[in-house]
């Protein structure tokens, strides 16, 4: 057991875990290694880490990368991380909510920026949506998430997990599953299995659409009313019956289908036709 062991650090500072902040700290060396290896970090990389905890993963990132900036919300962890990382001059810490940070200000002129995080599970989906929708210049996001969210991200059309999150990630990224992580790899143990995945940002979105707002709005409406036919789901856009018939005909999509059966290309066609 080395002095940088998570349990030792937690004990040293008498740190009290907060369930509310999704604090499950990694204690398994193989998982830490697999995250760093899976993120394919090198000395050119600027790493942004969300939620460093007591810095177990942070230390490994600092050894592998050019520079690391970590964002932590829990005030009680700030002096702990600062003290634990004091030997590194390539480390900086921001005390803030990751959902409120303007990442462009952190990224600045950096060319090779990778996000790495063992995410707090209560905000996984808002954090992923925010990081992708804002168009930040990340090369990749290597994240630990609940397995259930991972299954939604990697789902195929027609499957129960297929939804708005699947399509959002698919629009912007290629998805690579790195490994499954069991609850015993954390303290305290979460109730569910976790997954480490890497999202590689595409140079251009996967499909070309006339208007991204309309594209995501069509997707949202389709999955808000999951059990309804597309015909009924698209009524929220208040088009005339004739116009809506033309839209489905031009997009070559049967209006009796449900949204969960449409590929990303079909959603793009449908959204584009709605604008004509
Ligand atoms: N990286 C550490 C590890 O792997 O052991 C800790 C990961 S723990 C799952 C999540 C971390 O995110 C905690 O340190 C928690 O305090 C922090 N956190 C929770 N909500 C946050 C938020 N909205 N913004 C930034 N950090 C947050």
From TrEMBL:
The keyword rRNA processing applies. GO terms for molecular function: 16S rRNA (adenine(1518)-N(6)/adenine(1519)-N(6))-dimethyltransferase activity; RNA binding. Keywords: Cytoplasm, Methyltransferase, RNA-binding, rRNA processing, S-adenosyl-L-methionine, Transferase. PROSITE patterns: RRNA_A_DIMETH (PS01131), SAM_RNA_A_N6_MT (PS51689). S-adenosyl-L-methionine binds at residues 24, 26, 51, 72, 97, 118. It comes from the Bacteria. It catalyses: adenosine(1518)/adenosine(1519) in 16S rRNA + 4 S-adenosyl-L-methionine = N(6)-dimethyladenosine(1518)/N(6)-dimethyladenosine(1519) in 16S rRNA + 4 S-adenosyl-L-homocysteine + 4 H(+). It is an enzyme of class 2 (transferase). InterPro entries: KsgA/Erm, rRNA_Ade_diMease-like_C, rRNA_Ade_Mease_Trfase_CS, rRNA_Ade_methylase_Trfase_N, rRNA_adenine_dimethylase, SAM-dependent_MTases_sf. It holds the Pfam family RrnaAD. Its main location: cytoplasm. Its EC number is 2.1.1.182. NCBIfam families: ksgA. Specifically dimethylates two adjacent adenosines (A1518 and A1519) in the loop of a conserved hairpin near the 3'-end of 16S rRNA in the 30S particle. May play a critical role in biogenesis of 30S subunits. Belongs to the class I-like SAM-binding methyltransferase superfamily. rRNA adenine N(6)-methyltransferase family. RsmA subfamily. HAMAP family: 16SrRNA_methyltr_A. This is Ribosomal RNA small subunit methyltransferase A. It comes from Clostridium felsineum.
